[in-house]
Amino acid sequence: MSSHDDDELNASETPGYKVTAPAKSPEEYAKMDAQDESLARWKASLGIAPGAAIGPAEGPKVTVLSLELVSPTLPAGKSLVLDLSDPQALAEVKKHPFTIKEGIEYNVRIRFKVFLLHPRGVKYLQVVKRSGIKVDKMEQMLGSYGPSPEPYTKNFPTEESPSGMVARSGTYNVRSRVIDDDKEVYADFDWSFKLAKEW
Q1: Region of residue 180 (left: phi > 0; alpha: psi -120 to 50; beta: else)
Q2: Domains in the chain, CATH or no CATH each
Q3: pLDDT digits over 30-84, tens only?
Q4: What angle do CA 38, 62, 1 make, to 5 degrees?
Q5: Exposed, middle or buried, 84 (CB in 10 Å: 0-12/13-18/19+)?
Q6: H-helix segments, the chain
Q7: Cβ atoms within 10 Å of 149's Cβ, excluding its own
Q8: Residues 164, 102: contact at Cβ < 8 Å?
Q9: Mean pLDDT over residues 147-154, rounded?
Q10: Rounded to an integer, what distance in angstroms lies between the CA atom of residue 136 and that of residue 173?
Q11: What is d(CA 57, CA 114) in angstroms, rounded to the nearest whole number?
């Protein structure tokens, strides 16, 4: 990918906000304000407790499992899920793009797991291009999550797919990225879709 493509997938920055202090380990967070019972209960609910390692000691803080397009108009039994743990599925969706019905409401849904450390400011970024021209950019905060053996699911706000003959011509190429305030990238992948009159 060119550096221009990378620039498009940089998260926006809040003026005046700077990430200064290095991230702490769960043990360090657990020891902070240990005498405050309500704070200790809240931290325990996030999986922050001495010795509460959920995942491996090394490796990514966040693993993105899947991306899904969800719509109440989808026919029963049909799903549009991209399994990010399967390189073959990623290659397949580039060759055979998802088909999305024009003019319908849909949501992007992402599933991910958080391990050991608490990542700061994790965001989902998406740039959509058609014929090399940017037609849309999405930036959504995933939120704050503690380590957990179970995956988290985040539904993004409802959007409406374009409609009309012009919208139906050509393939839309999407580049998605999951990144945190420390500029650590947890997922960076390409996929494609086409618009049609029907699913």
Answers
A1: beta
A2: 3-13+21-196 (2.70.50.30)
A3: 666 677 777 777 666 665 655 554 455 566 788 999 999 999 999 988 899 999 9
A4: 145
A5: buried
A6: 3-8, 26-31, 37-45, 87-95, 165-168
A7: 9
A8: yes
A9: 89
A10: 11
A11: 13
Question: Tens of pLDDT along 74-83?
Answer: 998 889 999 9
Residue corresponding to tokens 């719509």 = 71
The C-alpha atoms of residue 127 and residue 138 are separated, in whole angstroms, by 7
- On whether the CB atoms of residues 62 and 186 are closer than 8 A, the answer is yes
Q: What is the CA radius of gyration of the chain?
A: 19
DSSP string for 129-185: EETTEEEEEEEEE-------SSPEEEEPPPEE---SHHHHSS-EEEEEEEE-TT--E
Q: Which two tokens stand for residue 67?
A: 């991306």
